[in-house]
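Backbone-to-sequence.
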């Protein structure tokens, strides 16, 4: 259930070519509608562009959609991850070498060059990029050969570029070079109404890929997905649905199938009163292949919580037993069994502390 796309014949009053990438966008929030509109706008121009947004929000998907909708659609879109290539190699990788091989700028001729994490580009390469953008001439690394280029640059970053500029890690002039055309992709937690449709689309996609028939989560499981903050954004949701579809094979996704961090927020929301915990806060240990000694594990867990209560109350058994909602005598008995109360100490303990 993606976005209702306007019919190709009527958008902007002109006939548009097929835009396969744009149709792969899923979402129904006002934010995603705005993104689709901006994709249309930037497809019409040939401006260099900067896309900003946290990792996993869909920056590269947006760039692909703009490329596919633009007059450069018959050229290539070449991606370069500026952070993944060591600084001294990046210049040759982008601009080519005098004798050895073409750079990505040459390979992308007539198309689009996607520069991911542009903030990671070393300053001298930033200077060279700016010069190339302004002169439409690029010089190979080390010099000796120049070529004209016809490439649209779409840069992307998840970084605080303003901070990088003020720390002199990102050139201010390059920053301003892009300031006329900036797209911001909001984090998934800022457009939670996209979560149900994205979840459904991912479950369907991975069912189709694996031949499984897992049903789309709803009810409490969807509540938990909605409550979570998704620091990894759409990519994190996509990866989780992939794992769940593979794991579940068929049937439904249950609350206990979700990773602890996902249902923790949900459990907190469900708990009556601040600080209350529910069964969902229990550590969830995998049963080892060869089984385990339940008694040993359970008492280790019990001791772990008792020790925390004693630490927090500076050894005060009365307060510790209140924290654990158990009788003081039961607590003392448990400590005695662990040898934590010597007969000598026993007297003091049975006092007030
Ligand atoms: N609105 C969306 N609809 C469908 N899939 C999406 C959407 N946004 C992101 N994705 C998917 O999420 C993953 C991460 O997107 P990507 O463009 O790589 O993010 P970024 O470049 O911001 O890190 C990709 O698999 C992408 O296809
Ligand atoms: Mg990316």
């Amino acid at each position: 259930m993606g976005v209702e796309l306007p019919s190709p014949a009527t958008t902007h009053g002109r006939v548009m070519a097929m835009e396969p990438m744009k149709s792969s966008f899923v979402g129904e929030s006002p934010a995603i509608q705005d993104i689709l509109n901006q994709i249309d706008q930037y497809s019409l121009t040939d401006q260099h562009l900067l896309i900003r947004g946290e990792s996993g929000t869909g920056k590269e998907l947006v760039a692909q959609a703009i490329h596919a909708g633009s007059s450069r659609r018959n050229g290539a879109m070449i991606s370069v991850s500026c952070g993944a290539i060591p600084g001294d190699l990046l210049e040759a990788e982008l601009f080519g070498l005098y004798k050895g091989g073409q750079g990505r700028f040459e390979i992308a001729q007539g198309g689009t060059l996607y520069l991911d994490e542009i903030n990671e580009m070393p300053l001298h390469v930033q200077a060279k990029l700016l010069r190339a953008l302004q002169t439409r001439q690029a010089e190979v690394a080390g010099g000796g050969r120049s070529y004209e280029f016809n490439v649209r640059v779409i840069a992307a970053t998840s970084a605080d570029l303003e901070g990088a500029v003020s720390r002199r890690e990102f050139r201010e002039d390059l920053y301003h070079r892009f300031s006329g055309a900036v797209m911001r992709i909001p984090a998934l937690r800022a457009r939670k109404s996209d979560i149900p449709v994205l979840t459904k689309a991912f479950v369907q996609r991975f069912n189709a890929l694996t031949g499984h028939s897992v049903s789309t989560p709803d009810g409490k499981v969807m509540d938990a997905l909605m409550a979570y903050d998704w620091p990894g954004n759409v990519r994190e949701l996509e990866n989780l649905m992939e794992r769940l579809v593979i794991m579940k094979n068929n049937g439904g996704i249950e609350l206990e199938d979700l990773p602890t961090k996902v249902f923790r927020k949900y459990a907190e929301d469900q708990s009556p009163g601040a600080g209350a915990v529910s069964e969902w806060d229990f550590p969830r240990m995998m049963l080892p292949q060869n089984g385990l000694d339940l008694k040993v594990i359970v008492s280790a867990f019990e001791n772990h919580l008792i020790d925390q209560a004693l630490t927090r109350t500076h050894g005060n058994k009365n307060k510790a037993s209140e924290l654990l909602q158990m009788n003081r005598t039961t607590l003392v008995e448990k400590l005695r069994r662990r040898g934590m109360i010597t007969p000598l100490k026993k007297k003091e303990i049975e006092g007030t502390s």
